[in-house]
Write a structure and sequence with these properties.
Elements lengths: L4 E6 L1 H9 L10 H6 L4 E9 L2 E12 L6 E5 L12 H14 L2 E6 L4 E6 H8 L14 E2 L1 H12 L3 E3 L12 E6 L5 H7 L2 H12 L3 E4 L5 H15 L6 H14 L4 E8 L2 E11 L2 E9 L8 H15 L4 E6 L11 H8 L4 E5 L2 E5 L2 H13 L1
Parallel strand pairs: 4-5, 13-14
Antiparallel strand pairs: 1-2, 2-3, 3-4, 5-16, 6-7, 6-15, 8-16, 9-14, 9-15, 10-11, 11-12, 12-13
InterPro entries: Acyl_CoA_acyltransferase, FEMABX, PG_Glycine_Bridge_Synth
Pfam family, one: FemAB
Protein name: Methicillin resistance protein
Length: about 375
């Protein structure tokens, strides 16, 4: 008979040691990420089958005013075996632990894919006026584990969040990834479209260089990021956020985070933040200047990051979130075309799910967030 599954607090060192035994995990599930998110209280939890650790999670807590009860949030987590035949027990153990420690709701984001659309399929769909969204297009791959996870969550009473639902899902459900496993640089180039290959050659011919920076380059990155925010009309984060992110993540693992800068004749054309945990590498933040756009600094920096991810042993290069749109008149379609040119694939993840642990408090908090 199998030992019962329990959940208890673990130290950051225990948490990090567990992650090192795994092929990969989301950087949002590292102990360091809790130190980045200073507006949340954080803790590390471990799952145990008897005395053997079988999972770990970073839990971020957002407190209700005056009551002290919390929304317990596991962004892109937890880090457990989602194909386990004991998945229901794993999730119930988490539920019971958090309820006992004062959470009024549990939010998780299983980092498991459910569907994949490859570049040729996406390209054809963009040209099809009857297809405006990914979920209107037959996927190239249906992932059995992800499909089973979604069914299990529904059966256990979890509520699926869309970006416009409830108090809003925090992490993207649709992402764009370039598979790296078993591929060479030549394979990556061959998988790209003609425009990408031509622009890569163009950056080399025109003398665009890309270098890995350090903490001293964060001010330069942030200056370019602020220009991008103004141009693209989004609210930027302060430089202190990136300084803290770089400090705590590089302290946890010197290879965890990098700053890249694409330059030409001492002018910075583009700057990015790159993160890697095990076999998964992310293009996390990116920025570019309006000057010398014809030199394709953004292309040069992406190509360098892909090659570095490949060299580091990553099996996935992740360009992070995309919107669920394929309509040619959508303002995001230019970004979609840019990512599709890499020859990668759109991936739908299981998404974010809520489990109310106190329905009265959950409903009240949901209404409060909707009114905001």
């Amino acid at each position: 008979m199998s030992a019962p599954i329990t959940v208890r607090d673990i130290t950051a060192d225990e948490h990090l040691a567990w992650l090192r035994t795994q092929p990969s995990a989301s950087f949002l599930q590292t102990p360091a990420w809790g130190d980045v998110k200073t507006d949340w209280r954080h803790e590390s939890l471990g799952w145990f089958e008897g005395d053997t650790m079988v999972g770990a999670a970073l839990v971020l807590h957002r407190s209700l005013p005056k009551l002290g009860r919390t929304l317990a949030y596991l962004p892109e987590g937890p880090c457990i075996d989602w194909a386990s035949p004991r998945l229901v027990e794993l999730l119930r153990a988490l539920r019971d632990h958090l309820r006992a420690t004062g959470a009024f709701a549990l939010r998780i984001g299983p980092p498991v894919p459910t569907q994949r659309w490859r570049a040729p399929t996406i390209k054809a769909a963009i040209g099809d006026v009857t297809k405006a969204r990914y979920d209107q297009v037959v996927p190239d791959v249906l992932e059995p584990v992800g499909t089973a996870v979604v069914e299990t969550l529904r059966r256990l009473g979890f509520r699926h969040l869309s970006p416009d639902d409830g108090f809003s899902a925090g992490q993207p459900e649709y992402v764009f990834q370039v598979p790296l496993e078993g591929r060479s640089e030549a394979d990556l180039l061959a998988g790209m479209n003609q425009l990408w290959r031509r622009n890569i050659k163009k950056t080399e011919k025109n003398g665009v260089t890309v270098r890995v920076g350090d903490a001293s380059d964060l001010g330069t990155f942030h200056r370019v990021y602020l220009e991008t925010a103004e141009r693209d009309r989004f609210t930027p984060r302060g430089v202190e956020y990136f300084e803290r992110m770089y400090r705590v993540m590089s302290t946890e693992d010197p290879a965890r985070i990098r700053v890249y800068l694409a330059e030409h004749d001492s002018d910075v054309l583009a700057a990015t933040v790159f993160i890697r945990v095990g076999e998964h590498a992310w293009y996390s933040y990116g920025a570019s200047t309006a000057a010398k756009r014809e030199l394709q600094g953004s292309t040069a920096i992406q190509w360098r990051m892909m090659r570095d991810a490949l060299e580091a042993g990553a099996t996935v290069y992740d360009l992070r979130g995309i919107t669920n749109t394929l309509a040619e008149d959508n303002p995001h379609i230019g970004l979609i075309r840019f990512k599709v040119g890499t020859g990668g694939e759109a991936v739908r993840l299981a998404g974010e799910w809520d489990l109310p642990l106190n329905r009265v408090l959950y409903t009240a908090f949901d209404l409060y967030m909707r009114r905001r």
